[in-house]
Sequence to fold (355 residues):
Amino acid sequence: MISALRPLTRIGHWIATPVLPESYLELINPLLGAGLRGRIERLVRESDRAVSLEIRPNHQWQGARPGQYVRLGIDVDGVRHWRCYSVSSAKAGRNDTFTITVNAIDGGQVSTWLNCNAQVGMVVMLDQAAGDFVLPQGELPKLLFVTAGSGITPVMGMLRAMAASGQMADVVHLHYSPDDAHNLFAEERRGLSLAHGWKTLDQLTRSRGDQHFSAAQLDALCPDWAERLAYACGPAALMDATAAHWQQAGLADQLKQENFRPVLKTVAAGAGGEVRFWNSERVAEGAGDKPLLEVAEQAGLMPKHGCRMGICQGCLVTLKEGQVRDLTSGEVFGESGDMVRICVCAAAGNVTLEL
Fold:
């Protein structure tokens, strides 16, 4: 269908100028418009704060592996916002629909909007899938998953994929949630465990008083954890605790993590400066430990961004003058023309950005 339209599109460019033929096609079917996009085909309410969206991408989609993430763009009050969400479905091939699960975060503009306003038929912008938080190819080793809250979403995609393909694996899954109401996919996970001989261990930290992650708890619940390839995903506290435990055991290479927030280093107070936004002719003070993205937003600007973690490269801005500090490494760098990830870089003295 798409290939047949291409000759007509070339003719249409001449006939329809200055309006592009793609604009007319988009009126007929939004998925035929320019760029990678998808249509929401189904919604499943997972909890009062989480919704799964089944999305049918257009012909430009190249597919995703379970555990990878996708940048999704929506327009809110006339402004396009981009966020990254993990694929939570078993399949996400070139010709498949795929699912993301969005958990509403306090103060999260996009996650809250999607939970309240997403509808079947709505078209969203997409980027190609990315990320290496995926299962190894070939025969699987013994696996350990440690997740908390919505950190379960990429792991859910892996579990569903293993079940759908019939892959044999020794799996232990330790999941933390506050209570049964917010214990995502609990019934499905128990069913998968029974069907495939996996071990699912739910820790309800608020309603039942279960402990948060600790070395002693891991030893008790999964004595052979050191023999397993481990995957951890969740809030910063879980990421810090698991990273420290595997590092102390000398097994850091056996732990794969997917962080929700960038791991930022402590920066000395007073290391910031004046931040000038060249295109908009605005000026703001930027603290040495404050991401330039937040400085720009507080100055009334709305730069394009995605993950807010320095991963997706959606927030790159040209540096015109000055230097910046990478908050994930502590490195100070900068020459005129450098591209800066403003979500994880702060001012290191006076800075001018092309914004």
Q: What stands out?
A: The chain has eight helices and 19 strands. The two ends are 41 Å apart (CA to CA). Residues 2-16 form the longest helix (15 residues). Residues 13-17 have pLDDT under 50 and may be disordered.
